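subagent[fold] <- orchestrator: predict structure for attached chain, return C-alpha cells only, no commentary.
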Amino acid sequence: PNPSDLYDLDHNYAYRWGIAWNIPDGEAITAAWLFFDDIRNWDNNSNVLYVRLLNTRRLGVRTYWDGSGSGDYFQGQGVLLNKWENLPSTAQDITYYFDGNEIAALTAYAADGRFGLGFDPDCHFYNKGIKLTIQTNRVPETGASIVLLAMALVQFVAACRVRR
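subagent[fold] -> orchestrator:
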C-alpha cells in the first residue's frame, strides 16, 4: 500500500487498501500471504486488529474515521482473514497465510481485476510496512487439450510410417 505502513494503523481510523491486479491468463492462485514488518502495539493495553479480504472497486488506500471505536469497522463485508488480540509492545514480524476458502474468495474477488483488504485497528500499531504476496501457477491442461494433443501425435506417427 501507499504508504506502506498504512499510517502506522492509527486506532482512530479504519483503512481500506484497494488493489488492481489480474490473475495471469492460464494461471490460478495457489497461495497468498499477508506480511506485517515489525508490528507492535503502542503500549501494553489490550488491543485488537481486524483484517478482512474485500470485494471492492475503489483503488488505493482510503481512511475512515471510527474515533477509536471498538469492533470491526468492515463487519458484514468480505471475508474476515484474522482478528489479532493483544499484540505485544515489542516489534514482531507476522505472516498470515490464506487458507483454501480464503484463496477461493480471493480468486473470485480478483476475477474482475480489483479487490482489497480492510484493516481496523482498535489500538495504535506501529509497523515498518505491510505486504501482500500472491502466488500463481499454470493451470494443468484440460482433458480436451490432452485428447487433441494425442490425436496430433497419432497423426504424426502415422505420417512417419507412411514415409517409410
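orchestrator: received. Logging for downstream: The chain has a mean pLDDT of 90. Strands lie at 13-20, 27-41, 48-54, 60-65, 79-85, 92-97, 114-121, 125-126, 129-138.
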